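Lecture 7, part 2: worked example. A protein chain together with magnesium ion.
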Amino acid sequence: MSRWETVIGLEIHAQLATSSKIFSGASTAYGAEPNTQACAVDLGLPGVLPVLNTEVVNMAIKFGVSIGAEIGKRSVFDRKNYFYPDSPKGYQISQLELPIVGVGSINITLQDGPNEGQPKTIGITRAHLEEDAGKSLHEAFPSHTGIDLNRAGTPLLEIVSDPDMRSAKEAVAYARKIHSLVRYLEICDGNMQEGSFRCDANVSVRPMGQTELGTRAELKNINSFRFLERAINYEVERQIELIEDGGTVAQETRLYDSDKHETRSMRSKEEANDYRYFPDPDLLPVIVTDEDIEIIRNNLPELPEQKCQRFISDLGLSDYNAELLTSSRELADYFETALALAPDQSKLLVNWILGDLSGALNRSDLDIQSSPINAAMLVTLLQRISDNTISGKIAKEVFEAMWQGEGSADSIIESRGLKQITDSSAIEGLIDEVIAANPNQVAEFQAGKEKMLGFFVGQIMKQSKGKANPGQVNQMLRDKLKA
Ligand code: ADP
Ligand code: MG
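Predicted complex, written out as structure tokens:
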């Protein structure tokens, strides 16, 4: 047992999936030529006025109601003042005192470790709207820094958690849950490589049993869940070593370097009053009525937790399997598409989706959306098992061939000659051959050694290259040997 307890709070920036920016009509599309999508409003040129994109407000409310949060009936945009080359206005429009989303919470379930399977509630302090800054480009120019302002003014929802997580694994489980939720809600595309979903991790340690929080460091530049876990674990070790050597942790922002696997100091952390926040005089407070909230609440899609409960109660799936299948909207969609085609095959579908298919996806580092085997293809394969065209074992071979792009289950079964042998005279021929070739084993069986049956079945299956129908082989073999 470590003497130290880890405490983590996450700040997640989810880029809201609107086609235009939060305060202007400029496009938010990713990957355009630098500086082709920043208009006068995004640059804050003198004389322009920002106009709030109401879609952004609706998306934030959608998120708020789905985490059971109080929605701010009157929220206010503030200017957060700081100088940075990628923010030519000299301030960022954000929300300080009156955010659009207040206190809420979300449940996580750990998939491994000592508390496996236990649910834990993570508090969400608030979520507020703000605009993104531009980007500094260091690589394209040898001795200069380029500035691309396309991203300036892109809408962000900053989701701030309470310091409720106690390990890197919990932090990852929480981040994944939020990631899954914003995708279910279709308010963020969740693309971490493109920066549409970014996590900053606030990490501190304290002696076990102490109630006050230790001094935290804020880790930035984390663009995958794997790096989130690694960055936190590295930082925890660093802080413990530092304190045990008599040092103290500085409150600062640190950059995670995934190549070197370390965190480095970037800057000391500013306090809120350094930013001289004040309400933006160009923007009116945002007023939200109960009716607005109810309309949004009534139009929410089925949320992951509801879907999970439905899979458990209506389909009889285990908690664990239901949790896994609803961990992403795309995976749940895949399952439901397949289930619609084969409504009485839920068990077999779950086994194949969470077993062979997930395994293959993991090995190739693919998402379910890019699976070479779509739901309809998988269903056909499973139907060939249940209509006795192939055995479950041969199905693995067909699956592999489908994965490699060889075609549909039926065409693979046909071209590779994998059809199960159900013709009883053919099976009888195989049985006779094997019996004739193994007189000693026959004698042993007839002397009462029942388990020799397995030996014969094995030999016959081998002779048939796995294609004989195992049920028929068993039945006919018994009859023959007893004769
Ligand atoms: P700031 O305004 O400086 O970003 P906040 O008070 O808003 O700071 O907290 C930011 C995040 O840091 C929150 O997610 C919060 O839970 C987390 N946090 C605050 N104090 C600590 C701490 N001592 N250890 C770990 N996380 C912390
Ligand atoms: Mg903050």
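The chain has three domains: 4-292, 302-416, 424-482. The first helix runs from residue 40 to 43. Keep this in mind for problem set question 3.
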